[in-house]
């Protein structure tokens, strides 16, 4: 493999753009890690972890609520391991991998592939608080829900990954956080955990929901994940820029090994487009696939992102708590756009 390293100009542009979005009020600060398969890493950090922590600057050890990066840090690799072990079949209905249910389960007929590619046609709005007081277990309540769209079209939702988290726990007979912790240890990701985590200067706070009330800090920001005790297939994971870099390196290494590595085979399969999102972007298994299949990436609502360019042997991590100031997507968009452009320039 011929590695394509990040240039000094790449790093300067990323640093400047991070400073720009921070100056525009997008985030208190953040860290970017640019790395390659051979272990080269550059860490760019600026701003503060949060105003209430004074001049504490983010670094590679700052812990962030990674939000929907949970989908690729936990659920996606665990589904791959379960498929490899014969515990799951991508093209069988999800109800086949859950405790027995009676009656009609239209959402339970969605296949594992449809759930992991956001093409199942499930209801887009997920309000687990509406299930309070229900007698049936959560998996049955979710599977009984009617479909909202015809299966096949892409529509990004969390509900399918909540189901996948329940599936993984059932087929393994172990809680999702236990399964994930074992996998992360195998990958050398010693900082990555399901929350809650203790408050402190190394943990980035997120949103203040009610003025005058302490903001969320060390607990999961996502409401549905919070109702699940902080452990869910779609959100709930906390990690550091250093561990996200370790994950990126592990995926690149596995990809290089190809058919000799189960994770590498799963990643290669996951880069095959499954559904169109918009011109130039397609959904693989979990990942968004861009640049003609040369780049895969995923975002987290709180202001995190992970980009891979497997053939070029490089990755890029964005770790911010941009949701600190409210919805983060539009405010942090310039940094994410530059990151995609940079990782795609191979």
Automatic annotation (TrEMBL):
Q: Which domain of life is it from?
A: Bacteria
Sorted UniProt keywords: Hydrolase
Q: What are the Beta-lactamase-related domain coordinates in residue numbering?
A: 15-340
Q: Which InterPro entries match?
A: Beta-lactam-related, Beta-lactam/transpept-like, Diverse_Enzym_Activities
Q: Name one Pfam family in it.
A: Beta-lactamase
Keyword Hydrolase included in the entry's annotation: yes
| Protein name listed in UniProt | Beta-lactamase family protein
Q: Which organism is it from?
A: Streptomyces coffeae
